[in-house]
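To the team - zinc ion complex, inputs and output below.
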Amino acid sequence: MEIRFRIAGIPVKILPAFWLVSLLLGWGPGGFKSVVVWIPCVFVGVLCHELGHALVARRFGGKPEITLYAMGGLTHTHERAALGRWRSIAVSLAGAGAGFLLGALTLAVAAAVSGGDGTAIERLQRAGALTLSPGAQASPLALAAGYLIWINLGWGAVNLIPVLPFDGGNVVRELLGGGEQGWLRAAWVSVIAGPIVAVAAFVSGWTWAGLLFGLAAMQTGRELMAQWRRLADKRDGLYERMDGAAKALHAGELERAAAEAEAILRVARGAGVKQGAAHIVAFARVQAGRPDLGLAALEALPAGEADDMLLGVCLLEMGRADEAAGHFEVAVVHGEERSRELLEEALEQAGDSDRTREIRARMRAREEAGEGTPRGE
Ligand SMILES: [Zn+2]
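Output:
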């Protein structure tokens, strides 16, 4: 269902969701005829925008790749940090720039070929080429001209609004210093400007843009909070204390490692430090013969963040072999070293139960499919 091709030597991949969302967006009072014209126009507009990014990125030595997906287009290229501020800004602006060129070109051609009296604008208006919802009498060509003008000029301008992760937000990040600091400042601009733009878009009936900016502001707000917690942990010296706890663990000073990691857990704000400290606690406590304390630290983490091998070891040491087997099975699927042996051990200890029978059946099925071989053994 994926379409792949190259344009000007740049690989382009189109995911099926791109067509689906284009179809949904184009479905309106214009009916079938307008959708048939709309979809190729969106395709040309989005591809032109991404080609703008890609061609400039390639000029600066990058190896860009374009993907068209549900939310529009995306150009993967080299790391921003390697690009430098002004080149990074040039890449960001090139998307809208390419769209403006195509939009202006369409405007000029449409004005030249539309007949009748009056100024170019009046003639375009009569042809229905200056509105997104022309009457049923508009010709397919006038429809196409109208869509191309709106998509390239309108969306190009909206995309320059300073909200992350849109191009305008990226420009602001570079202008405000780039890097981590620049991102933080641009994120603040985003969480203030994003909701304002979203409300304005909803009020003007541009629902799609409203949704997009609303979601972008929410996502950036979430990342901003996570980043703020990380920086607070750094400022409080928790990263150095984590290093100390890890060194104690490696040196075999289990009690000291566990106590320090538990103390860190009580004050940590960021997800990364919490996760690291909980694993040090679990590792140290299980070796010191207190798997219950290790399990408690791991279970306090959000779902899916605790290491399945370590969870399994704690449970196995506590005599809960049946539950341990479930975690070792996940580790086997992820190809963790020694997971296969531990799974066998847990299954043997657990004996016969509904769960162990299910696990054994899945193991056999995976073996037959040739999967689940532990890595590095
Ligand atoms: Zn862009």
